[in-house]
């Protein structure tokens, strides 16, 4: 990781870094969205906390989040989000 990424991670909340890392790793593995349930488990964040951060990422154009009527859903990084990571 270069110095710019190190300083960016120092500025971001650790929860946000965990979410970005999990979404990036899933994209590298499968290029498919990650379910919110799995993302919650991988980041060890409560669903309410996760959804709050995902809303901010979506508003910033960093992630696409789909939430179904039954509360299930998924998230994936946008091109801008992928560039942020690496």
Automatic annotation (TrEMBL):
Residues 29-62 form the HTH iclR-type domain. Gene3D superfamilies: Winged helix-like DNA-binding domain superfamily/Winged helix DNA-binding domain. It comes from the Bacteria. Pfam families: HTH_IclR. SUPFAM superfamilies: Winged helix' DNA-binding domain. This is Helix-turn-helix domain-containing protein. It comes from Herbaspirillum rhizosphaerae.
């Amino acid at each position: 990781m270069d110095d710019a990424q190190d300083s960016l991670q120092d500025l971001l909340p650790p929860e946000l870094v965990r979410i970005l890392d999990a979404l990036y790793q899933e994209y590298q593995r499968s290029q498919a969205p990650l379910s919110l349930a799995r993302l919650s488990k991988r980041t060890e964040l409560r669903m309410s906390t996760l959804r709050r951060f995902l809303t901010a990422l979506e508003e910033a154009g960093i992630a696409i989040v789909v939430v179904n009527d039954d509360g299930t859903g998924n998230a994936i990084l946008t091109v801008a989000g992928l560039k942020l990571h690496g």
